[in-house]
Amino acid sequence: MRIFKNRGDIYIPSTTIKSDLEQKILLVLLAFGVAFTAVFLVIVGIKYDFSVKKFFAPNNLVTQENNEIVNLPEVSGKNNFLFIMSNSNTDEMYSCSLIQVDMDGLSYKVCTLDKNTYSDGKSLFDIYSVGGAGNVMNAVKALLGIDIDFYIDESVNNYKKMFDAFGSIDYLILSDIRYKDTSEYGFNIKLKEGNQIVNGDTVSKLIRYYLSEKNYDTVNEIILTALSQQINSKNYDKKEKLFSLLIELSKTNITITDFTKSENNLKVLSSETTGVNVYSIVPIYESNKLTTESIDNIKGYFKK
Question: How confident is the model at residue 30, as a pLDDT?
Fold first, then answer.
C-alpha cells in the first residue's frame, strides 16, 4: 500500500472494500493515539504542574492570598457643624454652611445659607459682625429649631492653608467661569469647563463666586466633594497633625476631647470600604427670609 510515498502522490484504492478497510484501520490507530496521549498528559500533569499560570510565571514569584479583613468599629450618632469663611480684617462673613456628619446613615449633608438670611429681625451677616461665629450658631439654631454641636470659623487665608493641608480635589466645572470682584478684598477667577484639580485658593474663590450668583446648590456640591475626597485613609494617618492645624487656623469650640471621641467615626469615614452618601439641601427664600417650607425641609435633614 502506497500512501504519501512521494510528495504530491495521491493514492486511490482499486476497490471500495479495500479503501473502507484501510480507512477503518487508520481511524482505529488515530483513536488509539489520541487516547494514549490524553492519558499520558493527565498522568504527567498530576505529577508536574503544567498549568498556564505556572508555565508563564517567573521562578521567583511568590503568590500570597489576600486574607486581610477590614475590621471597622461600630458607630452611630449625628453631629451638626456650622462652617463659616470670613475676612479677618473686616469681620465680614463670606459664607455660612450647615454640615451634618451622620454616622447612622453614613452620609454627609450640607446646606449653605445666604449671609443675609434674617433671623429674629437681623441678618446673619450683621450678627457675625457684632458677635462672631458663636452668635451666628445660636441664631441659626433658633431659626431652624435644630441642635448645632460645633462651629468652625476660618479666614479666607487660613481656609486656603487648611484646605491645602488636606490636599487638592478633583472637581467638575460645568461651564467656563470668568469673574472679577472689584471690592477692597475682591478676587479674580478664570476657569475652563471640565474636570479641574483645584486647591484651597481656587475653592475659596469658587464658593464666593457661586454665592454672589446665589447658587447655593453648587456651593453645597463643592463642600460635599471636598468632604468625600479629603476624608481618606491618607489623611486619617495624620489626623493629629491636621487637628492641631485646625485649632491653630480656626476659631472653634471643638476640643481635644471632642476630637478623641470622634476617632472611630473618622476611621469608618476614611476607610476605602465605606460608601458614604451625600445630600445637598438648597434653601428657598422670599426676600431674605427662609420660607416656612424650606425651614421644615432643612430641619428634617438636620434633626438629630
Answer: 55
When pLDDT is averaged across residues 278-291 and rounded to a whole number, the result is 97
Among residues 171, 93, 176, 195, the alpha carbon closest in space to that of 139 is found at 93
Report DSSP letters for 254-278, one per residue.
Answer: --HHHHHHTHHHHHHHH-TT---EE
CA-wise closest residue to 166 among 216, 237, 106: 237
Give the amino acid at 175. S
93 Rama sector, left if φ>0, alpha if ψ -120 to 50, beta otherwise: beta
DSSP one-letter code for 232: S
Q: Which residue shows C-alpha cell 453648587?
A: 218
Euclidean distance between CA atoms 214 and 210, whole angstroms: 6
Residue range 103-127, pLDDT digits in tens: 999 999 999 999 999 999 999 999 9
Q: Which of 242, 231, 220 is nearest to 276 (CA)?
A: 231
User: CA–CA distance from 99 to each of 15, 48, 108, 223, 231 (Å)?
Assistant: 96, 62, 7, 9, 14
Dihedral sign computed on CA atoms, order 93, 289, 302, 171: negative
- Residue 219: φ, ψ to 5°: -60, -45
User: Is residue 55 scored above 90 in pLDDT?
Assistant: no
Which residues are CB-contacts of 132 (< 8 A; sequence separation ≥ 6)? Answer: 91, 153, 251
* Contacts of 164 by beta carbon, 8 Å cutoff, 6+ apart: 199, 200
Overall average pLDDT of the 46-53 stretch: 45
State the cell numbers at 215: 447658587
Q: Are 111 and 283 in contact (CB under 8 A)?
A: yes
Of the candidates 182, 183, 229, 184, the one whose C-alpha atom is nearest the C-alpha of residue 203 is 229
Residue linked to cell 471636598: 226
β-strands 150-155, 78-87: how paired? parallel
Q: How many CB atoms lie within 10 A of CB 110?
A: 26
